[in-house]
Specification:
2 copies of one chain form a homodimer. Chain A is of the alpha+beta class and about 150 residues long. Helix content of chain A is about 40%, strand content about 20%. In chain A, α1 packs across α2, α2 packs across α3 and α3 packs across α4. The first copy, chain A, binds a DNA duplex (30 and 30 nucleotides) through α2 and α4.
Chain lengths: ~150, ~150
DNA sequence: TGGGCTGTTGAGAATGGCTCTCAGAATGGT
DNA sequence: ACCATTCTGAGAGCCATTCTCAACAGCCCA
C-alpha cells in the first residue's frame, strides 16, 4: 500500500528512464523525511536498521541519481563531505543566523537580477553557485538591539 | 633582494603573528602569480622543480594559513578537491569557470540590491557572505557553442 | 649575539569519503 | 514469461587531505 507521498517519489525517480527499485525509494523517503541536510553516511546509518542489506555504495548511487534528476541538492560540508537535501521545487539559498543558528530560505526572486547581471555584464553562464549569507536574523537583531543597517 | 611584491606578501603572512618562512613565501608567490584557481597538488607540482625539498603537506598548510589570514580564498572543485585563489583585498566574490578554471571578480554593484532585499524582506542583517558562482566564462561558452541563456 | 622557547617542516603513514569492480539479482518492455 | 539492460551488495581501491613526530628554523629577549 504505497502512500501518496511514495507514489510521487516513485514518479520522480523514474522520470528520467531510471528504474524503480526498493533501494531508491528507501533512500528518497529517508531523505525527504528530514528538513536538514544529511550526509550519505548519516543517511545510511539512519536507514540501516530497517534495511540491513542495503549497501553504502547504493546510498551514494541513489543520492547521486536524485541530484541528477533534480530531486535533491548536494551541499558541501566542512572536511570534504557532501550533504544532501531533498528539493521539492527549485533549489534555494539560505540565510544563516550566526547567533541562533536558525536557517531561513532566501527569497529567490531577489537573485534574478544578479544572475541576469552576471550573464549580461560578464558573459558568464552560471551553472551552480554557492551562496550563503551569515548574519543576524530579525529576532536576534531585535534582541541585540542592533540598529545597524545593511552595509 | 626581495621584490616589492614579496615584501607585501611577507607582511601579510606575518600579520597574524605567524612566522615568515621560505616555504610560505614560495607558496604565496606561486599562488599570487596565477589568475586562475589552483589545487594544492597543482601548486605543489608547479613549485616542486625549483624547490625539490618542499613537501606537499607544507603546501596544504601554507594555503590553509593564507585562507585563514584572508590572503586567499578556498573554492570547491568537482571531486572533492579544493582550489585556491589569491585575494588582493578583502572579500571579493568570484565567477569560477568550471572549464578553464579562470576566475573573474564579480562586479560588486550587482549585489547591492540583493543585500538591500535581504534586509527589507527578511529583516536579516548580513554580516558576511559566501558567494561564488560556478559556470562557463564567456570564452569557454563560445568554445562550447552554448547558446543557453541564464535560467 | 647567542640561547632557547615554540612554531614549522618533511616524509611518509594514516584517514576517510567516495568510487569501482563484478557476479548475481531485479526491472520493465515486448 | 523472456531477456536485454540496469541495479545492487560487498569489499577492495582510490586519492585528497591530515596526522605524527623528530629535526629544524624564526623570533624574542637578555
Amino acid at each position: 500500500m504505497p502512500t501518496k507521498h511514495a507514489q510521487r517519489l516513485a514518479t520522480r525517480i523514474t522520470s528520467r528512464g531510471r528504474r524503480l527499485t526498493d533501494q531508491r525509494l528507501i533512500v528518497a523517503e529517508a531523505l525527504a523525511a528530514g528538513k536538514e541536510a544529511v550526509s550519505a553516511q548519516e543517511l545510511y546509518e539512519r536507514v540501516r536498521s530497517r534495511n540491513p542489506r542495503l549497501a553504502l555504495a547504493t546510498v551514494y548511487r541513489a543520492l547521486e541519481a536524485q541530484v541528477e534528476s533534480g530531486m535533491a541538492r548536494r551541499l558541501e560540508r566542512r572536511g570534504h563531505v557532501s550533504a544532501y537535501i531533498a528539493c521539492d521545487v527549485e533549489h534555494h539559498h539560505h540565510l544563516v543566523c550566526v547567533r541562533c543558528q536558525k536557517v531561513e530560505d532566501l527569497d529567490e526572486t531577489i537573485l534574478k537580477p544578479v544572475l541576469r547581471g552576471i550573464n549580461d555584464r560578464h558573459g558568464f553562464a552560471v551553472e551552480h553557485e554557492r551562496l550563503d549569507f551569515y548574519g543576524l536574523c530579525a529576532a536576534c537583531r531585535r534582541a541585540a538591539g542592533s540598529t545597524d543597517s545593511v552595509r
